[in-house]
Design brief:
By secondary structure, the chain is an alpha/beta fold. The protein is 35% helix and 22% strand.
C-alpha cells in the first residue's frame, strides 16, 4: 500500500463537554461549522465537517460532549449520538484539557477503549499549561492511560500544532476515493446552520439565565437575489422561561435577533430579515417524540 494512495475516512472527535472539540473543527475547516460557547453541551447534534487535500479527505464528526448527568431524554440522546459516532469511525480523536483531567474524561476514555477503534490523544489548551515543561509530565501520564496510535499536544483556539495533527491523521485512514466534493464543508443544511447561529446568540446573551430546555426551529426560509427572509421559533419548556428570553418589553429578544442577523448577513452575503417567536412546549427536552419532531435524530 503506497503512501501516495488517496485516503479517506471518518474521524470521530470525542471528549467530555467543553474541552474544545468544536473549536478544533472550526479552526481546521476555517469556518464556523459548529457553534461555540463557554456553556457545556453547546453541541447537541452529530455534525460532519469535511477537510480535503490533494492526498486525503478527512471527515471529522463533531459530537456532543459525553457526560454523566444524562437523566433527561435530550441528554441521553446526546450521549447515544456521541456513542454512535464511535461505532462508524475509522479513527478517534480523544480530546481533553491538558491541564484538567476529570472523572468524565475517564468515562469517555473507557468508551474509546471499548470501541476497539484506533485512537489519537489530543492534549488541548496547552497554552494554559505552566510552566511549559510540565507538558512533558502530561504526555507521560497520557501514554500510561492507553496505547494511543499518536499523542499530540495542541491549542485548538490558537491553532498550535494543528499542522502536525493534519499530517498524522491520513496514515490511519483507509485507502479510498473521496466521498464528498472538494468544496463541501459540512453535511448540515442551511436551515440547521441558521438555527444554530440563533441558538448561539441565545446562549451568549442569556448566560446563566439560559434554560437548557431551549431550542430553535426554522419555520420558513425564503431566498431572493437581494435577501433571505427567515421565520424562526425559539422553543422553551415553561412560560417563565419565555419571559427570560423575551425580556422587558421584548428588548432581549430584539437584541438576540440583531446579533444573529448581523452574523448571518456576513456569512450568507445578503441582507437578512429575521423574525423570531418564542413558544412554549412543555417538557419537550424530556419527550422523545418532541425531540424527534424537532430534528434531534436527523442528520441534516
Amino acid at each position: 500500500m503506497s503512501d501516495t494512495e488517496f485516503r479517506c475516512g471518518f474521524v470521530a472527535v470525542v471528549g467530555r463537554p467543553n474541552v474544545g472539540k468544536s473549536t478544533l473543527i472550526n479552526k481546521i475547516i476555517g469556518s464556523k461549522v459548529s457553534i461555540v460557547t463557554a456553556k457545556p453541551q453547546t453541541t447537541r447534534h452529530r455534525i460532519l465537517a469535511v477537510h480535503s487535500t490533494d492526498s486525503a479527505q478527512i471527515l471529522f464528526v463533531d459530537t456532543p460532549g459525553i457526560h454523566r448527568s444524562a437523566g433527561r431524554a435530550m441528554n441521553r440522546l446526546m450521549n447515544r449520538t456521541a456513542a454512535s459516532a464511535l461505532t462508524d469511525a475509522d479513527l478517534v480523536l480523544f480530546v481533553f484539557d491538558a491541564g484538567h483531567w476529570t472523572e468524565e474524561d475517564d468515562d469517555v476514555l473507557q468508551r474509546v477503549q471499548s470501541s476497539g477503534i484506533p485512537a489519537m490523544a489530543l492534549l488541548n489548551k496547552i497554552d494554559n499549561v505552566h510552566p511549559r515543561e510540565a507538558l512533558l509530565g502530561k504526555l507521560a501520564e497520557t501514554a500510561a492511560r492507553f496505547e494511543f496510535v499518536e499523542t499530540i499536544p495542541i491549542s485548538a483556539k490558537k491553532g498550535d500544532n494543528l499542522d502536525a495533527l493534519l499530517a498524522a491523521i491520513p496514515k490511519h485512514l483507509p485507502v479510498s476515493p473521496p466521498l464528498f466534493p472538494d468544496d463541501m464543508r459540512t453535511d448540515r443544511s442551511r436551515e440547521f446552520h441558521i438555527a444554530e447561529v440563533i441558538r448561539e446568540k441565545l446562549t451568549l446573551m442569556l448566560h446563566q439565565e439560559l434554560p437548557y430546555g431551549l431550542t430553535v426551529q426554522i419555520e420558513r426560509l425564503e431566498e431572493t437575489a437581494e435577501r433571505f427572509t427567515i421565520h424562526a421559533i425559539i422553543w422553551v419548556e415553561r412560560d417563565s422561561q419565555k419571559g427570560i428570553v423575551v425580556g422587558k418589553g421584548g428588548a432581549r429578544l430584539k437584541q438576540i435577533g440583531t446579533a444573529a442577523r448581523v452574523e448571518l448577513k456576513e456569512q450568507m452575503g445578503r441582507s437578512v430579515h429575521l423574525e423570531l417567536w418564542v413558544k412554549v412546549k412543555e417538557n419537550w427536552a424530556d419527550n422523545e417524540k418532541d425531540l424527534h419532531a424537532l430534528g434531534f435524530d436527523k442528520p441534516g
